[in-house]
Every structure is written in C-alpha cells, then in structure tokens.
Amino acid sequence: MSHITLLKTNELKATPQRLCVLEILENCGHATLEDIQEITKEKFPTLSLSTIYRNLNEMVEKGIVNEVKLTKKQHYEITKDKHLHLFCKECGKIEDFSFDTNSFTTKIEELGNCKVLNDVINLEIICKDCLSKKH
Questions:
Q1: Per-residue confidence (pLDDT) for residue 57, from 0 to 100
Q2: What average pLDDT score do residues 61-90 get?
Q3: Residue 51: what pLDDT?
C-alpha cells in the first residue's frame, strides 16, 4: 500500500511532511524523533521538532506507526505484522525478527489469568557483528 493510500485510509491528509516521515521510516526501519528531524531538514528546513512529534503522535493514534521503546529514546516504525525487536546493546542496531506472538500471549493469558494488551517483545542482544569483534 502506498503511503498516500495508507494515510487517506486512516483519515489523515497526505501532507508532504507526513509522507516524508513515512519515507524515512520505510528507509531506516526504526528512527528516533531526532533522526527524523535531522533527515527532514534537507527537504523541510523550517519544520519544527514539535510538528514532527505531533504528526508522529497522530500516526501512532491511527495505528500507522508504532512506538518502539528500546532505550531511553523512543524509536518509531511503520506498523507491520507481529515481530520481535532485537536490540544490540553494543552497537545500538535494531533488527526486526519475524515471530508470531499469538501462541505466546495466549499462554501468558492462560497462566497469568490476565489479558495481554500489548504483545511487543524486545530482546536485548549482542549482534553477530559485535560478537565477531570480541573474538
């Protein structure tokens, strides 16, 4: 689905700024607010951090973008199928790892007699590149 269609389907105007943010997230996979601001400066030098943040929040509310809380800084990504995040503690790289969390959350609900509201799973790792540097 195109970014324009994605925004319009979710009742948001396809502004050049929103399209730029989605393009950045598409290209980077995961980006902080500061990363997005740095890249958008090239196309929109006067675009404020608060405008970017407001647009991100609107897209999060509509389910177009997800907040990924891995470090002290929040990262954002375009919403996709369920997956895990692998966060390298050494280099800071974030990778998506395909994993259907349904059976895991169902088991937690059964064992804990509860309702899982958010099944985003983040694993802190040392990636293969950082491991190879240590040996």
A1: 95
A2: 88
A3: 93
∠ CA 78-80-85, nearest 5°, is: 85
DSSP 41: T
Query: For 29-59, how does the pLDDT look when each residue is reduced to its tens digit (9 = 90+)?
Result: 999 999 999 999 989 999 999 999 999 999 9
Please give the order of strands across the beta sheet that includes 83-88: 94-98, 83-88, 121-125
CA distances from 22 to 6, 13, 56, 79 (A): 10, 13, 9, 11
| H runs (alpha helix) in the chain | 3-9, 16-28, 33-40, 49-61, 102-112, 128-134
- Residue 55 and residue 25 in contact, taking contact as beta carbons nearer than 8 Å: no
* CATH number of domain containing 47: 1.10.10.10
- In whole angstroms, give the CA distance from residue 114 to residue 110: 7
Quick one: pLDDT band at residue 101, thresholds 50, 70, 90? confident
As for how many domains the chain has, the answer is 2
Q: Do residue 51 and residue 110 come from a single domain?
A: no
Do 39 and 53 lie in one domain? The reply is yes
